[in-house]
Amino acid sequence: QVQLVESGGGLVQPGGSLKLSCAASRSVPSINTMGWYRQAPGKERELVATIAIGGARDDADSVKGRFIISRDYAKNTVYLQMNSLRPEDTAVYYCYAQWRSAVDMTDKESWGQGTQVTVSS
Question: Among residues 7, 6, 12, 8, which one has the least CA distance to residue 118?
């Protein structure tokens, strides 16, 4: 199993920046995609951004031009640099990883515990 631990959340004023980090518990060459989802109060969890092992990125329209996802393969860590933050970005942000089990060769998913991001003046 791959365990994910997020960090970097907090309170930020509108227009500010914040960087989230998510570290995997072990090195797994078969981890294909890592990324971030978020869930605001009363809303469904939604995709923020993902990055595949080949470097392909997929960003939600609401964050394009403001958020940048990156990945450090040596550290098994994915980052989310958030700029020009808006109050509507307030949510719990969850790290995500999609990987293939070496035991049964099936695709698996792992989720972090979540980190709170609050954008308020």
Answer: 12
pLDDT tens, N- to C-terminus, the chain (121 residues): 789 999 999 999 999 999 999 998 876 667 789 999 999 999 999 999 999 988 899 999 999 999 999 999 888 899 999 999 999 999 999 999 998 888 888 999 999 999 999 999 9
87 burial level (CB within 10 Å; 0-12, 13-18, 19+) = exposed
Q: Which are the contacts of 98, defined by CB distance < 8 A and separation ≥ 6?
A: 31, 32, 33, 34, 107, 108, 109
At 12, the amino acid letter reads V
From 84, 88, 110, select the one nearest 26 (Cα to Cα).
110
CA 57, CA 70: separation in Å to the nearest integer?
Answer: 9
- Between CA 68 and CA 18 the distance in angstroms is 11
**H helix or E strand, kind and range, residue 13:** none
The Cα 42–Cα 121 span in angstroms is 21
